[in-house]
Write a structure and sequence with these properties.
This protein is mainly α and 128 residues long.
Length: 128
């Protein structure tokens, strides 16, 4: 996974690219979560296509953002760190200036920061 600047993901690059970077970021985080733990099935293109093609429906993007929060929480569990990502908080923050992206990227950065923090051979509880 890649460490990204949460503020850049939230406002910087989407502003420069007129919103296109948000779709690119959404695709990339799903691809990275799929690579993190190959035992889990993580949809890669589907969530981005929901935003692109069904964004006008209002309900479909909300379901997609909530599912992304659950996937981030599962990725944190797979990385062996405490699960701090709440899909509900992320979804609610999407209504406050789109702060959900900032929140989700901050939670993803915790996973990349934990690389090397888990001792080799340590047992990771995947069903906590």
């Amino acid at each position: 996974m890649k460490t990204r600047n949460p503020v850049g993901v939230w406002i910087g690059l989407p502003l420069i690219t007129l919103g296109i970077y948000h779709l690119v970021w959404y695709y990339k985080i799903h691809a990275e979560m799929a690579q993190l733990d190959r035992r889990r099935v993580v949809p890669v293109a589907g969530p981005m296509l929901v935003l692109l093609l069904l964004g006008w429906t209002f309900v479909a993007p909300l379901v997609s953002y909530f599912g992304t929060g659950r996937r981030i929480a599962n990725s944190q569990r797979s990385a062996g760190i405490p699960v701090t990502c709440s899909p509900g908080v992320g979804l609610l923050l999407m209504f406050v200036f789109g702060l959900g992206t900032l929140y989700y990227q901050s939670e993803l950065n915790k996973i990349t920061a934990s690389y090397g923090a888990t001792p080799v051979g340590a047992q990771v509880n995947l069903f906590a």
